[in-house]
Design a protein that fits this description.
Layout: H1 2-23, H2 28-48, H3 54-68, H4 70-83, H5 87-112
Helix pairs in contact: 1-3, 2-3, 2-4, 3-4, 4-5
Length: about 110
């Protein structure tokens, strides 16, 4: 349950930051790039430092970055698949994620119409 608290608190911060950035008309692509950069820095720091607090990692990576933009998590997952040699799986993950999510958005809008 404590893990949920760390994720929730971080998610609150990330979501509010995302909302505020939208209010000042920062484009979504800039937010996605910033979130992907931030999750990359956090993940690299955690890999370099084996004593990185797991609760802090949840707070920063899943909470703040996930609340700020889920695209950052998608990017990290894709990079990890490629880095570990799962190139075909990584490419399929990227292509299917983009294509299927776009189709799901269109389908969701069609259902409402």
């Amino acid at each position: 349950m404590i893990n949920c608290l760390f994720v929730g608190l971080g998610g609150f911060i990330g979501s509010v930051a995302r909302y505020l950035m939208g209010l000042i008309s920062i484009p979504t692509i800039v937010i996605n790039i910033a979130g992907a950069f931030l999750i990359g820095v956090i993940s690299a720091l955690a890999l370099k430092n084996s004593s990185f607090d797991p609760h802090l990692l949840l707070f920063l990576r899943v909470g703040i970055c996930g609340g700020f933009t889920t695209f950052s998590t998608f990017s990290l997952d894709a990079v990890e698949l490629l880095r570990t040699g799962s190139v075909l799986t990584g490419v399929l993950y990227m292509v299917l994620s983009v294509v299927l999510c776009l189709l799901a958005t269109v389908a969701g809008q069609a259902v409402v119409r």
